[in-house]
Amino acid sequence: MPVDPSELVIVGVTLDGRKFRPSDWAERLCGLMAQFGAADRNRYSPYVYPVIVNGEKCVVVDARLAEIEPLAYRFLEGFARDNDLLVRTGRRAPRGGGAAPAE
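RESULT FIELD:
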């Protein structure tokens, strides 16, 4: 299956194979990019949102964010780098179809 290079997937596993903590890291990270919507509810950005893949928490970052909000994109890249997290380009499955990061 082709890999979609228009997305980065930050995986909640460090380069040495440890699970990243705290357990709600993905929701917290995506919450930074979220906005309040109707009824004062938080809505994740369509450019940065959490997913669970094979039991691992991940954050999907749409590559278009680099053009729309370059500082936010660099922040997310830096977060992954500073915390030694796995980062993969694209996903193997389309949105809504059990998304899985590329290997």
